[in-house]
Amino acid sequence: MKFFSSLLFLTFAFASIANIAPKPIPYKINPTESKVEWFASKVTGKHNGTVGVKSGNLEFEGEKLMAGKFEIDMTTLAITDLQGEWGAKLLGHLKSDDFFSVEKFNSATLVVKNAALLSAGVYTVTADMTIKGITKEVVFNALVNQSGGTATADIKLDRTDFDIRYGSGKFFPNICLWQSFIIKCHRFCFKAIPGCLGWLFFASLIKTITKRYN
User: How far is 167 from 116, CA to CA, in rounded Å?
Assistant: First the structure.
């Protein structure tokens, strides 16, 4: 009798929990293992470099990406295609008020508002990008490997949307410097926040049991 009572209780408990809306599971970005590059091209050539990730997180409901936020450390802006005096000059110019005003705005943010699943691990992401205190909506595709803890994406931006007008053909017809630039998120590394691992395991267990007996 006790066995059947316990079995009935567990059945009721699992059925009740299975009907609860899944709790979003936060995953924390690992800045030191993440890699972000930038690329800018112009008529006479192109430049590229890196920028560091300060912090960030992604949220999943089950296996689906739901939200996220990334903070980019603009003080780590670097150039990789030029060295020495010319590299230092270009870096100084990019950090100046002609471009990113790094002294005034030392970070940029990307906030994921919506992620539409296209195929396994591939999303069309709608997000708010903030640079120099100006926020614009951006849409891009991202490849997210939840089990592997990585996400990659290419984000194309028009710099004039963020009041970076220096040498832009939009405002200076006789000068044609790079108009757009690409943020190449080669690798955002993330893992579940320790305090949420218990719920993540429990949610996976409930999902397995539900599939098995439905």
Answer: 36
Looking at the DSSP assignment, which residues form a beta bridge with residue 25? 60
d(CA 151, CA 27): 12
Cα 214 from Cα 202, distance rounded (Å): 18
pTM for the whole structure: 0.75
d(CA 214, CA 209): 8
Report d(CA 2, CA 87) in Å as an integer: 77
The region of weakest confidence among 11-15, 97-101, 138-142 is 11-15
Burial of 155 (0-12, 13-18, 19+ CB in 10 A): buried
Q: How far apart are CA 142 and CA 145, in angstroms?
A: 10
Three-state DSSP class for residue 15: helix
